[in-house]
Every structure is written in C-alpha cells, then in structure tokens.
Amino acid sequence: MTPPVDPVVLVIFLCVYLGMVLGELPGLRLDRAGMALLGAIALVAAGRVTPAGAWAMVDVGTVALLFGLMVVSAQFRLGGFYSALTRRLASRELAPARLLGWLVVVAGALSAVLANDIVCLAMAPVLVAGCGRRGLDPVPFLLGLACAANVGSAATLIGNPQNMLIGQTLDLSFAGYLADAFVPAAVGLAVVWAVVARAYRGRWHRAVAIVEGGAPAFNAWQTLKGTVVLAAVVAAFLVAPWPREAVALAGAGLLLTSRRMASRDVLGLDIS
Prior knowledge:
Elements: H1 7-22, H2 32-45, H3 51-56, H4 60-78, H5 81-90, H6 96-113, H7 116-134, H8 138-153, H9 161-170, H10 174-199, H11 220-239, H12 244-256, H13 263-267
C-alpha cells in the first residue's frame, strides 16, 4: 500500500522548487542554494526529519569529491583560462556554423573533466561579447554552450554532481564508465551542433550591444598549475585504486597552497 502524502512535506517541497524555478522568492534575497538549505531546515524544524537523519543523508564522499573538483575549476577560472580560450575561439575567422561546431567540442570536452556549471558561467559573458564584436546573434552560441556542457559532462563520472553521486554510491569504475559513455556523449555533441545549426541556418547575424565583463586576466602560470593538477587527478582516477574524493582533495590542497592566489578568492568564488 502506498503511504499517504504528508501535506507538510509536500508544501515544503513545492515552495523549494518554486524558488528553484524562479531563482528566488519574491521579497526575499534567497538564491537557489539558500532555498534548498531553508527547505532542509524546515523539514527538521517540522519534525519530518531528525537532525541525525539529515546528517546521514549527506554523502560525505560525494561532497568531498565535488569540493575538490570545484577548487580545480576555480583555479582555471581565476587564472583567466576560460576567458582567454573563449576570446580566442570567438575571434577565429570561421563561418558561424563552424564556429558553433568548435564551441560545442570545446565546451563538451571541458565539461567532461571540469564542473560544467563553472564552464558555462565563465564562458558565457565572454562569448556574448565576442559574438557582439562580429555582429553574430549570441543566442545560438549560448544554446550550443549550455547543451554541449550538459552532454559533455555525461561522458565522465566527474562532469557534474549527479554523475559524482552515482559513481560514488555505486562505486563505478572511472575508466569503465568513460569507455561506455564516450561514444554516446560524442554522438550527443554532434546532435547538439546539428540541431542548433539547422534551427539558425541563415539567421546567424544580429546587432547586439557589447558589454565587456570583468573577466580575470590570463595567467599562464596559474593555468599551467591547474592543468598539471587536473591531469594528475584524472590519471589517478583512471589507473589508481585510491578513493576519488581523497585524490580530488589532495589536488585541491596543492592548488590552495599558492603564494599568489589567495585561498579566500578560490573558496569564495561565486558559482551560483
């Protein structure tokens, strides 16, 4: 027999997801993360979840893995890597459809090994400015970026938080999952390009206002440091039997021990 729906839990659930859809609740300065936290607090306060039960629901290994990889992604963002790469890509003298193709490949590849949220947030403003300088409509390229980041992130167990949780819970092989998911993800990226390119064929150009954002300047040393750590972390995931969360935290620790990049800037990076 199906248990009855608890009206209190249902109301809290609907309020939280309404806030998620709107991005905030009218009259309150709560973002999506704040809404989720408030919903959890309401469940505990209403006695629907005990404090011990709430802590037991947290997968510490997944949170640690996510934190470590977010620090790696933040290293690239603060080092100006995403901005420099996007500027170079947008400035290439390519036909719009080919430019979209390169964008889909780059965004998909980056999202497979770095948090796809940061890839989108870091690349989007620079991409819009680059399109504006060339008289291109940024909408198809933003659609390509968003879709490619989601599809590319599915190729590995570290591309997005959902995959991290699945991989940690089921103790999946990183290399085995990559072997199974690489081809579907590659086909998915091709489909993303084909659908967006077909939808906007003949409608690539539109005058838009150029707004230059305050993207970090490119720092070759910080980018190289992040690249070396990321390569070592991914290599360990592929061949070593060590816990992935321990490897990711070790990589994050190395990046945080910096003489030039303050740890408060890395840890305080807003990715919401």
